Amino acid sequence: MSEIPGTASGVVWQSNPPGSIYDYIRVASFSIGPDGLVDQWSRRAVELFGVPVDEAMGKDPVEAFLPRELRERGHRRIAEILDGKEWTGLVPFRIPGQGRPHGIAEMYVMPSETRTGDRAALCIVVDVRALRQIETDLAASQAIFGQSPFGFLLFGTDLTVQRANQRFATVFGGSADDHRGRTVHDYLARPEADRLTAALKRVLETGESVTELQIIGAPPGSTDRRHWSINLYRVHSGSGRPIGVAGLGIDVTRRHNAAREAASARRNLALLNEAGARIGNSLDLEATARELLDVAVPGFCDLASVDLYQGLLTGDEAPPGRWGSPQDVGYGAGSAELRRVAFASAVSDAPVELRSVPGGCEDGSVELGSVHRYPFNSPCASALRTGRVRTVPGPEGSLVQSTLTVPMVAHDTVVGLVQFSRAKGSEPFGERDRALAVELAARAAVCIDNARLYRREHERALILQRSLLPPGDPEAAGLDIACRYLPGNAATEVGGDWFDVIELPGHRTALVIGDVMGRGLRAAVAMGELRTAVRTLAQLDLEPAEVLSHLDEIARGLGAPAGAQTSGRAHKTRGPELAEVYLATCVYAVYDPVTRRCTFANAGHLPPVLVEPGERAMLLDVPPGMPLGVGGEPFEEVEVELPEGALLALYTDGLVESRDHPLDEGMNAFRRALTEPGRPALEDVCDHVLNTLDTGHGQDDIALLMARIQGLPAEAVGDWSLPREPRSVGKARELARGQLTAWDLEPLVDTVELLVSELVTNALRYGEGDIRLRLLRDRTLVCEVWDSGLVQPRRRRARDTDEGGRGLQLVGLLSAAWGSRRTHRGKTVWFELPLPDGDNNAEPTVEQLLSMF
Question: How far apart, in whole angstroms, are the C-alpha atoms of residue 457 and residue 435?
């Protein structure tokens, strides 16, 4: 029973107060009269034994409730009790009329007296099973509460601590009883205490539990911040009345730190993955530095800058510096010269440049793009010398909390310095951050060093390629020549495009354009070898198809290792190393200004374009053939007569093809650009084509060779046929003299008469068929003697006893050049003389002439 003050009588007795122990312990009472029969039977006895009052009253309890085998002892106990003896013990009992098993009751029997003085007994019975269960639950509760490794608090309805366990007292000091009556504000800082108080109120009011409430605080006398995970739930009495809130706290500091480390590791891994994807996409040094900062800011730091050695940026061959070698990098008064190439900031009020980096790294501010030095004793200079990262704290009053000064090292070579800074309020740099900073700097350094090496190779390849192109403005008889070469940019490397203009005997000209497939120095070298081979083959005066056939063999030989054999079939090698295959396309054309006929042969190249006066540009139908280096297929020739004033264009695919435009679209645009009127000068036409076409902005090399047809006029050609008889020698001299006189070239008459006489004599003696004499006047004078014989003249040194054999020696001595070539109907022997106003007009000396005899 409990008292409730405030009633009219002052006290009210409740028969079943909420939360009473009787809600948990099964207790019943009954009394036995002087006759040993039940004379009182309580309601709880009804509940415990399951026997109604009318069935229990007046019954012998021994006979009614005890098993048969215990009844004799029961009667003796009842007699002793009625004699005034108390008794306590365990009594098994059965429940009449029910199939329930026997129970065990702990019975307390106290003697009593009636009003008449007769002896009776009062019996109190407790269900032992319920009692033992309560004892077990209490022991378990005490064990869990006292031995739990987790902190436990029981808050009352006024949110004060009603009970704390020993684990909580171990963390916050004192004994468990010392914490009674305290509130959460006695343990936590105000913000965290207010948050926990609000959670307690919500749980008490709503009954909804709170799990994993994260609280941060520090135990008394400690500066270590601890992280706790709090679980809250409302506690009820046996009748369901809320009596408080229980709180279970778990120290999750280690778990929090581990999660933070895991998050940091994931962030670092993500940064490294991003760095691998974003850094080094270009072969530009400064662009690579900016890509590094794009990754680092703000994902890793708040401010960052990159300095590269000035020598690296200017293309010095020597590496900027090595670890521990001050003399290599120019240390004396300080570091070698560096240039600030990149800066990034995630701080809104940060300066444009990184000013006054802590530790004296910089003297004043460093503008982006400026060249500077670090003082010798500064952390930056030390990092550059040793190749090791330095952590520099931020000065007082600066927005910078700390700075990681990281040398950029690639292949044991320091190429620059990167500085990562975090503003105040950010998390300080840790060891994991230092390792990440070194890794980011190293990745960028390797990309920068690769860009440096690539740029050097690109420049060398470009120098080589330019050195192999025709010097100056090529000249050709009967042609107006204009040409352009544009190398690919640094990102695409130098290619193997080339063109050439080769003078051939008889004022003929070979026009060549080609493209070695591939990029870089190897492609440029292969191009140079092919170009040299073309010039060599051109001097043999072979037909265009023959030239390409020989070039095909040479191209296959370029990729063959030493000692490998090549044949008409595709080249194969045996051994551990595979040969590198060089493929190239080429157009070889020979133009004769006398006939204005041009013979083409094509090895897989784009077709030539011809623009006739007043007509639209058209593609010449030249069979493409297979690229050089494939082998196995012959090349075809096509002869085309070119009209006077026509425009012939040879080009490489970089002019008409790009990633953004298909070949057909580029070809159509090229043809339109060639036919636009108003540009009579060939150089202007070249410029217009390059400015009009979308050439891909350096995606590939571009070679363009254009020629305007200007055939030799009829008055510049002398052509005669001579019968095969001795008097033709004199006739040839007479014809030559007359033609030279008509051309006002009298200073050459004697020499030409002598050399023509020798060539016609050789044709009569060693040749076959009729003889043809032709004189051509252009920038030089060319004389040709044709016959049907196939045997080529061979110059030899005549012995003293020989009567002849000195004619070709005389031709070689008196002419600027001479030679012979095969034709479709025989051979042609020719010589060339400079015109009188030329630079090579020196007459042979008497000693030179006498030396032949």
Answer: 33
